[in-house]
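Bench notes, afternoon.
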Amino acid sequence: MTLHKRQIALAGLVISIATVTYAAPRFYNTVDGSPLDFDLAMEEGSDTEAVRTFMDTGVNIYNENPEYLDQGESIYSTACSGCHGHYAEGKIGPGLNDDYWTYPRNEEDVGLFSTLYGGASGQMGPMWGALTLDEMLLAMAWVRHLYTGDPETATWLTEEQREEFTPFDPDARKSGG
């Protein structure tokens, strides 16, 4: 191949790489792998900035955002704590605040959202009829905030968040710290 042809080929490769677009995340039922049907979602709370961003990128902008953690805690306390424990330590349902995931896909926010939306095995029914899409993201942010493990394994945190993250200490919370 001549130098000129190599330059043309390289230029074509650069253009191809530069025009690559990233696909939106795909959401599948945690148990059976079928695509989730978002037509079932409540219309309310389906067009917030957080939902639009999440559906386009898989990034939950509520994670570690102090402006929204109280809302997330309130939703979690009402809809999730009865099974997963007040601090996501686990009760009837599995713990959600450590490095063990019943469904490994839940390490990523798209997987956790899919489990919330579409349900899982046992008593974990789909939440699409009980919570709005936005409320699911808020509850997820609270669950992520309750994480007690090493921030380096918290795949849902940005690099900046990972550097600033302090693992949740339920004992400090109980004593008012």
